[in-house]
Every structure is written in structure tokens, then in C-alpha cells.
UniProtKB/TrEMBL annotation:
BP GO terms, sorted: lipopolysaccharide transport; transmembrane transport
NCBIfam families referenced in this protein's UniProt entry, alphabetically: LptG_lptG
Name of the protein described by the UniProt record: LPS export ABC transporter permease LptG
Highest taxon above the source species: Bacteria
UniProt-annotated location(s): Cell membrane
Pfam families: LptF_LptG (PF03739)
Annotated membrane topology: Multi-pass membrane protein
GO cellular component, one term: ATP-binding cassette (ABC) transporter complex
Ranges that cross the membrane: 12-32, 66-84, 105-123, 307-328, 340-358
UniProtKB keywords: Cell membrane, Membrane, Transmembrane, Transmembrane helix
Primary residence: membrane
Length: 362
């Protein structure tokens, strides 16, 4: 009844699994990053002042994305190779003859995979999100050198009543919100009355306090310059700070408060909720790989069906990735509830893996 009847066997199988997973991940990253760099190096070097250092900068920003994407695939391949090797060498037969059940044989792999999932989650939320945002800004600037302050820039359009606000930069939240390079299209009954341009705008009661103001009256054609101006409007700061959220750019612990702000602003949040839950279920999918690949571990190697079993395990693993991406896309379209979009594939294939293992081995 012990979880690990033999610590030696548990450590032996877990070490085999982790070493192979790391080897597959490193190999995939080297190959895919080399191909990716060949395709992007021309664009990077085309920007004035770029050289070898910028190529390495691109690699450092792109590698975290590849790790996030291909770590589950590496765990799946490592599972199949580890279990197929144990089967081929009749080590699985020895384990079972020593009294270990199928679940006890797989448990070290499952625990190691859970540790990989935790490390993957921490890496994604602390490194990958920041690298993804930095790379996106750099690519939108055609790989030219980006000033550090531009990384904080958020262009935003907001509508309040008939009026339209456009801000080049949005900083701060709530009463501390500061808009820079603001253009306000003052409209009445869908008719443009005037255009107000300001250097900065800060929220005050019932409106915004503008500085460095230039106004253009459409009816009279008169241009007015003023140091300050109060503009009455129903637009509130959170309409700017919740205008656009890309979950790939935001760590999970910052994403949930932003989702709450979106919901308070009356904006749809189901795609964001699905993406937030998937930040947990995505890395946790590595725990499924030993279970789905377990079909390659059992059965007599002499039967000649070891390759067929490995193919079945690979099919189950890739079927999970297809179902996971499909459900996440359905969640983004609002077709299915967010929790179902994030967790349904995980739970479904967990049951499939357990059913196959119990029916065939237990």
C-alpha cells in the first residue's frame, strides 16, 4: 500500500524521465530557434544600428515563448521514450514482479511532471509574459531601438456619451490616472462641435482637467490656446486602464484584478477569464503526459506491439493538445463558459488516461 515501495526504483525512473525531458526540450529549442532566427535576422539587421547584439536580444526574448509552447511536447516525448525503454529492457516486468502496481510505477513520473508544471508556471508568469510584451513592442517598431518609456505606452480610444477620447499614453489607475497627448472630439447629436487637444489630462469631479490646451471650434473655425481647461464628461479613468488587456503580457496575479476592473466597467470578460484559468491548466497539462503515455510501458515487448503502443500514446497526447487549443478558441469566441474552455480537455483526458490504465493493467 506504500506509494513508493522502493525509493531506489522511484528515483531511477524519475531521473530517467527528467533527463530525457530536458534533452528533448533543449534539442527542440535549438532547432526551432535556429530556424526562427534565420527568418527574422534579415528584418532585425535591416534596422539602423542593429548588429549581433540585437540578434542575441531577439533570441533571449523568443526562447521563453518556445519553452512555454513546447515544454508539454517535450514531456510527452520523454514519457514515451522512458516508458518504452523500461518496457524494452523488461524492467517493467521486474517492477511488477517486485509487487509494484501500474500506478506505483507511474507515480514518480507524475510527481516529477508536477514539479515541472510548477516550475513552468513560475517561469511563464515571471519571465515569458515580460519577454512577450517586450518582443511585441520591438516588432511593432520594426526592430528599431525602443526607448524604455515606450514600453509603458498604451494607445487608447474611449467613448463617453457622444464624445470620443484618444490618448497616446495612459499611466496610473483611478484618481492617479494621467493621459498624455490627448485628443477629444466634442460631439452633439453625432455632430462634431469642436476638437480639443491637450498635453495632459487628469480626472477631476465630473470631468477632466486639461493642460496645454488647443481647441478648434468647427462652427466658427476659430482656434484657441489655453494653459488649462476643464472638460465636463462622463468618461471615467478605468475606461482607459481597462481598454485593452492581452493575457500573454500580464502575470496571473495582476490579471485577476484587471479582469475585475473590466467587469466593473461593464466590458465582456469571458475570454480573459478563460485565458486566466488556462495559465494554470496549461502548465498542469504536463502531469497528464505520463498517464497518456503509459500505454507504451505495459504489454510484452516480445509481442512486437511496442511501437504500436508508443504511437497510441503519442496519439493520445497530441489529441489532448488539439482539444485544448480547440476549447480555448471556443472560449475566446464566447461559445462555451470560461471554466469549461480551460479545464474540460484536462479533465476529459485525465479520465481517458485513468480508464485505459485501469482497464488494461489494474
Amino acid at each position: 500500500m506504500a506509494l513508493f515501495p522502493s525509493r531506489t526504483i522511484a528515483w531511477y525512473t524519475a531521473r530517467m524521465f527528467i533527463i530525457r525531458a530536458a534533452a528533448f526540450l533543449i534539442g527542440l529549442i535549438i532547432i526551432l530557434e535556429s530556424l526562427d532566427l534565420l527568418g527574422e535576422s534579415g528584418k532585425i539587421l535591416a534596422a539602423a544600428g542593429n548588429g549581433e547584439a540585437e540578434l542575441w536580444t531577439y533570441v533571449s526574448l523568443r526562447v521563453p515563448q518556445l519553452i512555454q509552447l513546447f515544454l508539454p511536447f517535450s514531456v510527452l516525448l520523454a514519457t514515451l521514450i522512458t516508458l518504452a525503454t523500461l518496457n524494452q529492457n523488461s524492467e517493467v516486468v521486474i517492477f511488477k514482479a517486485a509487487g509494484l502496481s501500474a500506478h506505483q510505477i507511474l507515480l514518480p513520473l507524475l510527481i516529477a511532471a508536477f514539479g515541472v508544471a510548477v516550475a513552468n508556471f513560475a517561469f511563464n508568469e515571471t519571465v515569458t509574459t515580460r519577454a512577450t510584451r517586450t518582443l511585441k513592442v520591438w516588432q511593432e517598431n520594426d526592430y528599431a531601438r525602443v526607448p524604455p518609456e515606450k514600453l509603458l505606452t498604451t494607445e487608447s480610444w474611449v467613448r463617453g456619451g457622444n464624445d470620443l477620447f484618444h490618448a497616446e499614453t495612459v499611466r496610473g489607475v483611478g484618481a492617479n490616472t494621467v493621459l498624455s497627448s490627448v485628443t477629444i472630439y466634442d460631439r452633439l447629436d453625432d455632430r462634431l462641435i469642436r476638437v480639443v487637444m491637450a498635453g495632459t489630462a487628469r480626472p477631476v469631479a465630473n470631468g477632466w482637467q486639461l493642460t496645454d490646451v488647443t481647441s478648434f471650434d468647427v462652427g466658427s473655425g476659430r482656434r484657441t490656446v489655453e494653459p488649462t481647461l476643464f472638460f465636463e464628461s462622463s468618461v471615467v479613468p478605468r475606461q482607459f486602464t481597462t481598454a485593452s488587456i492581452n493575457p500573454a503580457f500580464v502575470p496571473l496575479w495582476e490579471l485577476w484584478p484587471q479582469i475585475a476592473e473590466q467587469r466593473a466597467a461593464g466590458k465582456p470578460v469571458d475570454p480573459l477569464v478563460a485565458a486566466a484559468w488556462h495559465k494554470i491548466s496549461g502548465p498542469l497539462s504536463t502531469v497528464l503526459m505520463p498517464l497518456l503515455g503509459a500505454v507504451a510501458a505495459f504489454g510484452l515487448a516480445r509481442s512486437g506491439r511496442l511501437f504500436v503502443r508508443a504511437v497510441i500514446g503519442m496519439f493520445l497526447g497530441f489529441a489532448f493538445f488539439v482539444a485544448d487549443n480547440f476549447m480555448l478558441a471556443m472560449g475566446n469566441f464566447g461559445t462555451v463558459p470560461p471554466l469549461m474552455a480551460a479545464w474540460a480537455p484536462f479533465l476529459l483526458f485525465l479520465l481517458i488516461g485513468e480508464a485505459v490504465l485501469i482497464r488494461t493493467e489494474e
